[in-house]
Amino acid sequence: MAVSEGRVKELMQGTNRPRRARASRAKSRGARPRAPRLLPVEVHSRPALIGRDAQLRSAEELLARAEVAGASLAIRGGPGVGKSALLLEVAARASERGTRVLRATGTSAEQALAFAGLHQLLRPVLGEAERLPRKQRQALLGAFGMADADSCDVFLVGLATLALLSDSAAQRPLLLIVDDAHWLDSRSREVVTFVGRRLQSDAIALLMATREACEDAVEDPGLGELALGPLDDDASEALLDASAPGLAPAVRERLLSEAAGNPLALVELPISARRLPECTLLPAQLPLTARLQQAFAASALTLPADTRGLLLVAALNDVDSVRETLDAGSILAGAQLALEALTPAAGAGLIELDNWQIRFRHPLMRPAIVQSATLGERRAAHAALAQALVASPDRRVWHRAASIAGTDEDVAAELELAAPHAHTRAGIGAGIAALERAAQLSADPARRGARLLCAAELALETGREDLVRRLLDAVESLCLEPVERARSRWLGELLRHTESPSAVKLDRLLEIVEELRVAGASELAMNRLLSVATLGWWTDRDPLASDALAKSVAGLNAAADDPRRLAVEAFAAPLRQPADVLERLSRVDPETVREPTAALRVAVAAQLLGGVHESAGSVDASVANLRREGRLAGLAEALEAQAWNGIWLGAWDEAAAAAGEAARLAHETRNHPIAAAAQNVRAWLAALKGDGEAVQALTDACERSYLPAGRTTLLAVAHVARGVAALGEGSHAVAYDELRRIFDPADVAHDLCVGQWVIGDLVEAAVHCERGPQVAAIVAELELVAARTGSPLLLAGLSYARPLLADDDERAQALFEAASGGAGAGACRSRGRRCEAPARRSTRLARLRGASARARSCAPPVRPAAAGAPTRAISYRRRSSRSR
Q: Which residues in 274-413 belong to E strands, given as ranges?
């Protein structure tokens, strides 16, 4: 049908005519002219593109070159990588330079419409087409259905497009932007690439954005190329923090991992995470927003049905096996499928494929494909996987559970048994998810409650109080057995403990341990008693509490060589344990203690008995195991113990790192005693490094929290840090007063076990301020303790204290040499900085008291440390480290 010349002009004039018509109609009606805007218009600056400085520089250089001789560039990258954002920023900068910008965006809906993309691009300049030669004008307008044309010659349309753009660029430089070029119809793509190869003599720049590694990607050797990859770690963190500030550390880490540097994912994933129900863990596959789903799964919608089925199976499978995917996919399709059925997905850039593995090109491809399927399709794929994975029962039961609607006790029991393996293999969240799903499949309320309690106990390890409360609320209305009721009460008490440092009541926890014993759950009772003992060590050093622990452990009738029993007794009364207890605890293989946190506490008990070196390996192993399993509460405990070992073994940098992480994790999991203990480690390190202000701030915070609780180890350690700081500054009287409180039974900071750590420091401070006789009785008492316990840490401290208190120079020299070369001191000296101290420090004090010239030659004078410097001019810890 012929189109009139007037109609052609109207169409070529684009959108300007309706605006003029509206203005004309308003004037004819006598409408009042719009008043000028009196208030200034607020101009919003564009958000900066994070992590794309290099790519923007390349685009700026392209614009500069184009103003002289034209240029073209294809930007290649995966979905969501930021191609469109980069194009928008370049367009804005070009407009600021006075360049005219023409845009087109490919869409799947218009892929079948010839020249649809080219019409988008040229529509603003079609009004200038009447200056083209007649054949070119007819070909171009005919391609758009705006004029009759004998044939649609792509070459002639390309020439007309180039001429039209050249004429426009003669008046003002042009920037052509084509986004999602892989979705352009084939004719438009041919014309755009034709033009892109012929811009050398015009002030025109062409920027095209296209997907990488897919069949529809624009491939033309005549175009320049710019690869747009994922953001680096720093840029990813900056973008996530800018789009979603204040995320919980665990959520932030998970989103960074899932996004894998993809800018769209970094912006959109926090939105989908916020839409999850409250009091839940992040699922194995995060739900996606519509933008993300469209970005990552749109290419899959046009694939053959068998290919889509195979992709869904692969997305639901937890391994990348081609064999398993083909087996399950064949079951799903009802026919044997070959590897070739996956070729279209590889061609679309969704997967990478070889004979053994199928790998999605981005982590979010999996959830996008799963989310695009219906519930029925997902259940069918899970059922097919369950049928195919006969040789992998742990994985098979997951898919059986996911394919079921309703209850199934057999599957629930099987899934409960598989939960520990899931926990070990995929982390604590997988274990919680397995137990929750097992509870959902349980028809029996008692079994459902038991499984929910198992999930709640694991959830407590993650520090997710909200999740624990939700699970306990679900249990509350169920009929529970006595053991399960005790477990529920235990969790409730621990939640109260997280609310306030002084909320813990050991007597209530011991009552629950007794309930477990009476109900026949002696193994669980012993593990819980070990938890009580650890908690009591930090928060309640009252002798009555120690007696109650001893009575409780005796009532459990555990084997005498049970490492957990030995650990409870050590926590309850570390200074009353015979020497063989440390030896027996040191021989314990952590793998034989089935509960990871219990294995850690056995190692910490050896540490309390002075076995610093003996416990170090087990503590380090616990850190690795608990970190791998995602047990954040237990990991905080392990790191705190590792930090103490770092102080005693001279690894101060490692101690500082462990204490910092322990404090952070304990704060996140609301484990107040461990948080305070980690801060005390930091205070002690600050004292050793001469940072008195940090010592005061950290110990003040501890006192504010724990003074109301009465006598605690935490208060004792706070005074240790203050005393060590004062000793380093040369304030010996202050140091003596602070440290002496630890040895005073009437003082709230009294803790003789902590005192064995610093007996040498106390004696040094006492001798400097002429109070040596006043500490002699303390040393004598600890000599008896050392003879009974054989504590290496105490023996090292006493070997340092003895020469300082010697009555005469000859005796001091003999003790000096014994400390330097004796068996005990030598063993300690080989393990850390602390044990070289007796010789060096005794000679310093001997000189102050007029000892021999030989002694005087062994050590420099005492000088207060400058702020920020090592705290002691003769710091035995630092010097011995350097000497080695």
A: 351-353, 358-360
**Alpha-carbon torsion, ordered 766, 770, 773, 775, to 10 deg:** -10
Q: 10 Å Cβ neighbour count for 800? A: 28
Contacts of 617 (CB under 8 A, 6+ apart): none
Q: How far apart are alpha carbons 863 and 843 in whole angstroms? A: 15
Note the helical H segments in 500-562: 506-518, 522-539, 543-555
Q: Which of 343, 353, 253, 345 is nearest to 296 (CA)?
A: 345
What pLDDT, on the 0 to 100 scale, is given for residue 70?
85
Distances (CA, A) of 804 to 97, 567, 838: 81, 34, 8
Please report which helix (H) or strand (E) contains residue 71, including its range: strand 71-77
Determine the residue type at 414. Answer: E
> Scanning the structure block, which residue is given the tokens 């629930």?
412
pLDDT number for residue 221: 58
Structure tokens belonging to residue 542: 């009252």
**Sheet architecture: strand order including 204-211:** 100-105, 174-179, 204-211, 71-77, 224-227
Distance of CA 78 to the CA centre of its chain: 25
What are 489's two structure tokens? 């009460």
Q: What's the pLDDT score for residue 710? A: 63
pLDDT at 381: 96
Which residues are within 8 A (CB) of 870 and not within 5 positions of it... i.e. 6 or more apart?
688, 689, 690, 728, 878
**What pLDDT, on the 0 to 100 scale, is given for residue 643?**
95
Q: What is the DSSP-derived secondary structure letter of residue 385?
A: H
**Tens-place pLDDT, residues 159-173:** 999 999 999 888 899
pLDDT value for 335: 95
The amino acid sitting at 440 is Q
Tens-digit pLDDT profile for residues 753-785: 999 999 999 999 999 999 988 999 999 999 999
Looking at residue 764, what is its pLDDT?
93
Task: Output the CA–CA distances (angstroms, integers) from residue 646 to 452, 623, 762, 832, in the order listed.
Answer: 39, 14, 21, 9
The pTM (predicted TM-score) of the whole model is 0.70
CA–CA separation, 226 and 579 (whole Å): 70
Residues of the chain with pLDDT under 70: 1-47, 149-151, 213-222, 278-279, 499-504, 541, 708-711, 820-884
* Residue given tokens 């000028």 in the structure block: 36
CB 562 within 8 A of CB 588: no
Per-residue pLDDT tens over the stretch 722-753: 999 999 999 999 999 999 999 999 898 888 99
678 Rama sector, left if φ>0, alpha if ψ -120 to 50, beta otherwise = alpha
Backbone angles phi, psi at 102, to 5 degrees: -115, 135
Using an 8 Å Cβ cutoff, are 788 and 747 in contact?
Answer: no
Distance CA 608, CA 571 (A): 8
The alpha carbon torsion through 52, 53, 59, 63 (nearest 10 deg) reads 150
Rounded CA-CA distance 364/287 in Å is 10
Q: Give the ranges where 275-347 is alpha helix by DSSP (H).
A: 290-297, 305-316, 322-333, 343-347
Look-up: residue for tokens 């900085």?
833
- Residue 430's Cβ-count burial label (10 Å; 0-12, 13-18, 19+) is buried
- Which is nearest to 76 in space by CA: 294, 235, 224? 224
Residue with tokens 């600021």: 96
Radius of gyration of the chain (CA): 37
DSSP reduced 3-state for 204: strand
- Cross-strand partners of 100: 174
Can you tell me whether residue 852 is helix, strand or coil?
Answer: coil
